[in-house]
Amino acid sequence: MRQSQLFTRTRREAPTDEVSKNAQLLIRAGYVHKEMAGVYDYLPLGHRTIQKIIQIIREEMNAIGGQELFLTALQDASAWQKSGRWDDEVIDVWFKTKLKNDSEVGLATTHEEALTNLMRDQIKSYKDLPFSTYQFQTKFRNELRAKSGIMRGREFVMKDLYSFSKDKAEHDAFYEVAAEAYKKIFARLGIGDKTYFTYASGGSFSKYSHEFQTVCEAGEDIIYLDEAKGIAINEEVYNDPEVFTTSGLTKETLTQAKAAEVGNIFTLGEKFSQALDLTYMDTEGKPQHVFMGSYGIGPGRVMGTIVELLSDEKGIVWPEAVAPFRFHLVSLAGNDEVLREYADTLYADLTQAGKETLYDDRDLRAGEKFADSDLMGMPWRIVIGKNTVATGEIELVNRATGTVEKVTREALLDL
Amino acid sequence: MRQSQLFTRTRREAPTDEVSKNAQLLIRAGYVHKEMAGVYDYLPLGHRTIQKIIQIIREEMNAIGGQELFLTALQDASAWQKSGRWDDEVIDVWFKTKLKNDSEVGLATTHEEALTNLMRDQIKSYKDLPFSTYQFQTKFRNELRAKSGIMRGREFVMKDLYSFSKDKAEHDAFYEVAAEAYKKIFARLGIGDKTYFTYASGGSFSKYSHEFQTVCEAGEDIIYLDEAKGIAINEEVYNDPEVFTTSGLTKETLTQAKAAEVGNIFTLGEKFSQALDLTYMDTEGKPQHVFMGSYGIGPGRVMGTIVELLSDEKGIVWPEAVAPFRFHLVSLAGNDEVLREYADTLYADLTQAGKETLYDDRDLRAGEKFADSDLMGMPWRIVIGKNTVATGEIELVNRATGTVEKVTREALLDL
């Protein structure tokens, strides 16, 4: 894309009321716009970035057989009354509103109730199980405070997958598969080495749930991690001796760290299938409750964590897999028509070769262009300057390391 | 996808409270689930279908330079108070709710205010114009009644594009381009021949707006159409003599018809840029108000219209471009292992060749499978039965026409 056509612009300062580093940088670089605390619009660059994250998650959810769907935000009270979660004291982040007939409806904070309820039409027999289904859908949570930028929103897109199994054994097998898929996802997203499989508090059907915690100063959690094993324990269960037996960790090898919860997997068991009476007929024709699990990732939380973790004093540093564009082609052609044509042709060739490129074709000083490029954070900067045509050498700068190489046009198109 | 793994099932009867044909069929075929009146979940088949529609629209919006973004549903009152549309008597379909600090927020019914407001940070100079930006985003509208299935929702995804131009001339040029893009979209969606470019009431900056109206008994509008020209006049402006001069139509060639509004394009002019003070500096350094337009399509409305228009007594009939799967491979193998293996291999080969196929590998009677297949509406049914292996001939049924052909395996893989 030509930067002269991109409608967003960079800015020197973030809004004064924005305290989180991720939102400060994302606003300054033109990725997001703040509507109100915890409520952010995704502008074209931000939309491209979060869609990259979403696509990686989608591919891994499809790979384990997840069937994608899309549930509604508006929720009727009835299913939630059955599970006991309609009450504002049970879920204290409800947004509620009213239909014209004065009946109250809520904006989904999560979708266990809705999905369990609709499965009553779909699941009849043991032959229908197991399966899993997921969505990328907007959740609304009326947080009292929202000061973590896009890492904790009042409105945010979440990937939530739900599994439906005949019994705990079948569930456990899928749970393992889902945990492995999550590890793949965070590795592909470029934060695998900082992300720990973390024991956290569970529920009535499983003593522990598991979180994926990324070590990060902006995180809201405290974990105790074993770096060599890639496993951690959340502070909330750290004082329970049993967690050491279960996890195989020992206190001596653990380090305390602040971390952001980028994903979680949870054994729900029969909690919702009992409350909402979701059963299947077993091989003997007897009704049994479906055994469920839920598996969440917040793509915005991941995006914010990446910014917090990898940015430097100059701006954002995107991993290749999630950058809105892989290359930032910065032309210093000015009034030099030959150089401009060279840059135009290179941009066309890169695009033709499927290399996603943001082309800074604007009429600005080199210093401003480089500062913008550093702030926006594409992994590779290609600089077309005075000597490029004469020498046939193109300057290639790695955003993360700052390394500068001289490469030929051919090498660049092969990169 | 193997149908034995798809978690949805077909049902003989729609819920008794569902009066619209589109929702009745879509619920029976397992495409959607009704949460409440006007609020529908998209199950895997429905999600695939609406995503096909969305992707076609996206491609055509990108082709005219539209930059995709994603705005929030939660809306602060301030921008809407400036435009005068916060009041429930001005917009009578607001859903409103409250933050913890008791301040009122609304759920966006549309996004002119939010977008005009955020552009104040982005648009500075005449050099920044023109451009357009769009999204696929959930709108909430508190409709008093919602009896048209997915054609009129209280919560629905909408594609809304907004254009920003220096003046009316620049705007008019883009408006023409957008109108042509819309014609392409409806042609690609398979309803081009039934969709009319329709003159409707405008606003202060343009006497008429334009709707794209698809002739359809379930539609809520009355239009007067010229079949040869593909142009129509909405009843609401039919008694204005000027509309005939502007449209070039004459009463004598027009036929009255019921129609569904599947898209609209609208000259907003300076209505919002004046209210929210969105200006740019012109070449002489003087501030000027930005000239705007808005361009909507409801993908769910389109999906519902297609069902209303093309279905028959047996069920849904999808056009190839929007069907969740192009082929429905129906295996009548029963206990015949050779036949089952033949069908399995054909399914693998079709998938390998990139032909999207739903494979009915379930252990059911032929009659049930055919009834399901008719109800679900994939464009081509492939039947693998007793004689297939012996004769090498595969039965191929066209869902729309009912035509049955015998084709070879090779011909099928080339289709």
By secondary-structure content and strand pairing, the structural class of chain A works out as: alpha+beta
Determine and state the CATH class of the largest domain in chain A.
Alpha Beta
Fraction of helical residues of chain A: 25-40%
Q: Reading side by side through the largest sheet of chain A, how are the strands ordered?
A: 9-10-13-11-12
Specify the CATH homologous superfamily of the largest domain in chain A: Bira Bifunctional Protein, Domain 2
CATH topology of the largest domain in chain A: BirA Bifunctional Protein, domain 2
Number of strands of chain A: 21
Oligomer: homodimer
Please, how many domains of chain A? 2
Mean pLDDT over the full residue set of chain A: 97
* Apparent shape of chain A: elongated
Binned strand content of chain A = 25-35%
Q: Which radius of gyration of chain A do the C-alpha atoms yield?
A: 24 Å
The CATH architecture classification of the largest domain in chain A is: 2-Layer Sandwich
Largest interface, C-beta within 8 A: A-B, 57 and 57 residues
Major sheet attributes of chain A: 5 strands, mixed, barrel
Q: Show unreliable segments of chain A.
A: none
Instruction: Count up the helices of chain A.
Output: 12
Distance between the termini of chain A: 19 Å
Layout of SSEs?
The structure is a homodimer of 415-residue chains.
Chain A lengths: L20 H8 L3 E5 L2 E4 L1 H20 L3 E2 L5 E3 H7 L11 E4 L5 E4 L4 H8 L11 E10 L14 E11 L2 H21 L6 E9 L2 E10 L5 E6 L4 E4 L7 H6 L7 E15 L1 H5 L3 E3 L5 E3 L1 E7 L1 H12 L16 E5 L5 H16 L4 E4 L5 H11 L3 E5 L1 H6 L2 E5 L5 E4 L1 H6 L1
Helix pairs in contact in A: 1-8, 2-5, 2-8
